[in-house]
Amino acid sequence: MARRRKKKHPRPRSDRPRDGRIPLLAVCMIAKNEAERIGAAFDSVEPVADEIILVDTGSTDRTAALASARGAKVLHRKWDDDFSGPRNAAIDQANARWILMLDADERLSPGQENRLRKHLSANVDGWTVRIRSVLGEETGGQLYEHAFPRLFRNDPRFRFRGRVHEQIVDSILEVGGALRDSSIIIDHAGYALSAEERRGKLLRNRRLLLFDLDDRPSDRLAWYHLGETHALLGEDEAACAAYRRAVDGRNLPPEHAAFAHQNLGAALVRRGRFSEAVAETTAALRIDDRALTARLIRASALLRLNRPDDALADIDTYLRNGKRSSLRPGGLHLGIDEGKARLLRGECLLRAGRPAEALRDALAASAVRDAWIAPFRLAARAALAAGDRPAARDALGKLCALTPDEPAAWIELARVVFALDGPSAALAVLDEALRFGAPRRSAEVHGLIGALRIRLGDRPGALDAYTEARRLDPTRQEYSSVVEHLCRETGKNGKEGEGLSKNRLIEEESDHSSHSARRERESDVPS
Predict the structure, then answer these.
(1) Which candidate, 201, 177, 205, 21, places its Cα nearest to that of 96?
(2) pTM
C-alpha cells in the first residue's frame, strides 16, 4: 500500500504513482443529498481505499463537491427508480482488484482496517460483512445486524440485481464464485430519520418492490421485503399476505424464512389473531431456534390467550439467551429489547397474580430508556394490586409528569395521595392538574376537587367545583344533586354536608385496600 499523505483531503490513491501496479481496493458508493453524513463514510475508509468512486443520483446539496474534494471520482446519473443501476455504474469505473460497496450513511467500523486487508489476500470471490444498525431511541438502542456480500472481486460478471434491497450474491453464485462470511463490521446510521423521511423512503421502497414483483412474481425474497415494508407502514393485512407469499416456496433463504414467519406472527398479534401468531412464531423457531424475537412475539400472543405461565417461559428464555446470541453466518440478528421484554414479563406476572414481582419488572423496564410511559402505567397497576401505595404514588407521579394532559392519571394519583397523606395533599395534586387542558376540562377532576373541599370544610369552594363539574357533564345526576344541596345550605359549620352522597371517585380508591378499611374510610369522607 502507498504511504498515507498528511494532507487533510488526499487524492484517490489510484491517481498516485504505483509503478504500474493495479490498485487493490476500490470503495464504490451511491448518494443523493448526503452532505451531512458522507464525510464520516470517507473518513472510515481513507486508510484502506486505493480509489473511491461515487455515483451521485441528483443531489441538490454539496454531496458531489464534498466527495470531489476528498479525492473521489464523481459520476452523475439520473435517478430512474433502480438502485442496482448506479451501483453497477460505480463498479464499471473501478480499476482495483477488489470492491467494497458502501452507502453514504454507513462507515467502516473503527479498527477494521487490518482485518479487511487480510481478507483481500484470500482465494475467494466475495465476503459477507456484518451491517450493524441501531434502530432508535424508542427501542432503547436495540441492535439489528444482517450479513450481505459487500466485499467482492472486481469481476464483470458480478453485478447487483433488483430495484431496491438489491443484492450481488446471485450473480456471484451463478458463475460458481466462492463466498465466505467475514467478521468485518459496517456501522449503518440510516434509521436515524424523521418520521416524514422514514415514511417517504418506505413508500418509495414499496413502489419499487411492486415493480420488481411484476417482473419476478416468484421472487420470495422480494415478497419478504414487501412484507417488511407493509408492516413498517402499518399495513398489517397486506404484510400478512406478502409474508405468506414469501414462505410459500422453497427458495427463500432459511434466515429470511425464520424472520418471515416471526414477523408474520407479529403482524397477526397486531390484528388480534393470537392462535395463528403462536403457530407462525413456532414455525420460525423450528427453522432457527436462535430467532429469539420470535419467542417474545409468541409470549405476547400467549398472554392474550390467557396463558401467562407459558408466556413467562418464552420471555425468560429470551432474556437468558439474548445477550449471548450472535449473528449466524450469512444470517440476520435482532438484538434483544430488554425494556419490552421486562414490560411484557411484568404484565404476565400481574396476570398470574404476582403483583410485587410485576412491579419489579416494570421498574426494570423504566430504567432501559428515558421518558417511556408504559412501564409507569404497569408499575402503578402492580403497586396498587400489591397494596404498595408509596410505590403507586411514585409511579403515578412520574406518569403524570410524562402525560400531564391525561385526567385519569391525575385522578388515580389524587386517590392514592388521599389515602396516604389526606385531603389537603390530594387537593394540591388536582390543583396542579388544572394547569393542563384536558384535566381542566374533566368533570371527574372537578367533582373530586369538590369532594375534597367538602372534606376540608370549604363549602363555597366545593360549590364552585361541583358547578363546573355539572357544566362539563350535565347528564350526571350526582353533580346536580350536590350543587342543589350546597345552594340550600345556610349556617355552615363544617359538618352539614355529612348527609351528602359519597363521591365515587374517592370511594374507588378504597378498592385497593381491605373491605374493613374501605368501610372505615368511606364513613369519614363526604362528597
Answers:
(1) 21
(2) 0.81
